[in-house]
Amino acid sequence: MANPYPRTFSHIGISVPDLEAAVRFYTEVLGWYLIMPPTEIIEDDSAIGEMCTDVFGAGWQSFRIAHLSTGDRIGVELFQFSNQQNPDNNFEYWKTGVFHFCVQDPNLEELAEKIEEAGGRRRMKAPRYYYPGEKPYRMIYMEDPFGNILEIYSHSYELHYASGAYS
């Protein structure tokens, strides 16, 4: 059997309690492009309604969705469900599933401040340097205003890990 080739990343779906506020945050703070404005999807016999019933099961009723795109063409679907639950602490890293996503910004300190000003918060007091005194690679964990965990890297993923970041 041949080795698989590395697939590219297409998009991620993020649940939020307020779709308009999330669209504002992700377009104004992270600079992502709005490619489809907030739209309501209802449980019916349309193609999209049937596809959602296949995924969510019967009885989902409706949700709202907006589509955004990052600067490197990764799609971001923002979902607002009518029966959504908003836990006090959304950082359940010990549970199976995605617990964060990461964006890249060479001035992560400035972006971290913008996130805080927009209602988000720091999960770390200060950025961590991967190679102190040797390279400027750093990272910080943040939380958006809706409880979703995001990490910021100053440089590419490959640069952070190619030289043994944990040694």
List the helices and strands and how they pair.
Elements: E1 11-15, H1 19-28, E2 33-42, H2 47-56, E3 62-69, E4 75-81, E5 101-104, H3 108-117, E6 121-122, E7 128-129, E8 138-143, E9 149-153, H4 157-161
Parallel strand pairs: 1-4, 5-9
Antiparallel strand pairs: 2-3, 3-4, 6-8, 7-8, 8-9
Outline the structure in words.
The protein is an alpha+beta fold. It folds into 2 domains: 9-83, 2,3-Dihydroxybiphenyl 1,2-Dioxygenase, domain 1 (Roll), CATH 3.10.180; 90-167, Roll (2,3-Dihydroxybiphenyl 1,2-Dioxygenase, domain 1). 21% of the residues lie in helices and 29% in strands. It contains 4 helices and 9 strands. The strands form 2 sheets. Strands 5, 6, 7, 8 and 9 form a 5-stranded mixed sheet that branches. Strands 1-4-3-2 form a 4-stranded mixed sheet, with helices on one face.
The ordered string of helix (H) and strand (E) elements is: EHEHEEEHEEEEH
CA(first)-CA(last) distance: 35 Å
Give the averaged pLDDT, no decimals. 91
Largest β sheet strand count, sense and barrel closure = 5 strands, mixed
Keywords: Lyase, Metal-binding
GO molecular function: lyase activity
Pfam family, one: Glyoxalase
Protein name: Lactoylglutathione lyase family protein
